[in-house]
What we know:
The protein has helices spanning 2-18, 58-114, 120-174; strands at residues 23-26, 32-35. By secondary structure, the protein is mainly alpha-helical. The longest helix is centred in the middle third of the chain and has 57 residues, at 58-114.
Amino acid sequence: MKRNLLVAALLSGCAPLAAAQVYKCKGASGETVYSQNPCAVGIEPMKLRSNRSSAETAGEAANRAAVYQNTELADAGIEERHCVQGERSRIYGPLDSRGQQVGRQVAELNRQLTATNANLAGATQDSGIRAQIASLQQYLSAERVAADTQMSSAREQCASTRRERERSVRETFSNAPETTR
C-alpha cells in the first residue's frame, strides 16, 4: 500500500515535467541546444512524440501487480526472519548469560575438588562438591529444555504471522481490479 502511494506521488510530481515545452536553438558556436525557454522571439516549441500510450495495458498492470505482490510476500518472509532472530535473542540471551555464570561456578567447584584431602573428611567434601556440580548442570539442562520449548512456540507464532500476512497479500492482489485499454 505504501509503495502504491509512493509511485502515485512520484508520477504526479513528474506530470509537469512531461508537459514542459522544449525549444531547439543554435548555440554561439553553431551547436544545437535544447532549452525550456525560447531562444528568440517567435520560436515555436518542438512537438515531442511519445511511443508509450498514456493508459496502462492489462499486461503492464498485471506485471506491476505481480511485482508488488512478490515484494510484499518477500517482505513477509523477511519479517518472519527478524521475528525469529528477536525471539532467539530474547529467549537464549539470558540463558547464555546464566550458562556462563554456571560455568564459572563449576570451574570454581572443580578447583576446590582438586584441593580436597585424601581422607574421610576430604571424601565427604568431594562428594558434596560433585553433587553441587551435578545440580548446577541439571539446572542448566532444565533451563535449556524450557528455552527450546519457548523458542519452538515463538517460531510457530512468527510463522503464523507470516502466513496471515501472505494470505492477506494474496487476497488483496486477487481482488485488485485490472486496468484495460
